[in-house]
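Below sits the subject:
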Amino acid sequence: MTRTAPEPAPLPRPARRWKDVLILGGLFALMLVGLFGMAAATGWEETRAQLAKLSLSYVAVLFGLSLVNYLLRGLRWHMFARRLGLPTGLLQDMRHFLGGFAMSVTPGRVGELVRMRWLKRETGWAVERTAPLVLMDRASDLAAIAVILGVALSMSTRGIAGAVPVVVVSIIVAIIATRPALLTRLVTYMYKATGRWPRLFGRVRMAARSLKQFSNAPVMLAALALGLAGWLAEGYSFYLLLGWLGADVGLWSAVGIFVFATLAGGATGSPGGVGGAEAAMVALLHMEGVPLEISLPATAIIRITTLWFAIGIGLIIFPFAERISVRTQHALENR
């Protein structure tokens, strides 16, 4: 009796893809409605006058600096994948990393875990074996942002309310997430405290032990350097944007406001930090003496050229990444 090859996993149904696109469109519309509503309250003429100051070349620079951030962090993802021993190439890892941006607006960005699904299909590695990639990626971002925010606080003329505890918490979380023994003990304590989900906690402990692959100075320093360069590129784009719109905000103040607002948005748990990040950015710019006719368009533009640009890239790459992963899984199963 001959065995038939297993059918490949189906691609997401068109209806489901349209539903995801509608959700993204709804979130984007909510952000614009909120900002436009505030702009209407302050006067459309002033806002339009500020937007008229931006040429296409300026906007291209903003997109270019955001792309630098994504490519550097994608290179860091590839470095982590190689360190973990995954049999993946640079272009393959870049496809996974950038394609995952399509799911950035899920609560807590958990949708980006789709990268692990692609890895399982293409390499056969179980989720618990690739989980350290996600953990290291998030921890490295936290560490880089905490360092940038700490430097911004020391270099800017004015402080950022609430930034010091955010820096401290970010550094503590980054340290815990990158220390295998410490994280394993924490998971064990949580399991004993709850007494539930033994299989889940067992997988988390296995993933935590895998972090030993990354626990050396050269890897951590390289990851930190790539994260710093990437996030500074986007922070610098915010500084340039404010200058082009006529706001007299220092470099480190602008960078600090950008990274703090990004963290604040993520802390709200809202999809992509939509709402929280924009509110924090406008409030902090107001504290710097930036009028609403500048802070509102600046906030809208920087969010479009960072968060929504990343989502746009992800939406373009996602269907190709999904199709390639299914095709690769099918080929592996037929060997």
User: Anything to note?
Assistant: The first helix runs from residue 14 to 42. Residues 242 and 248 are 7 Å apart (CA to CA).
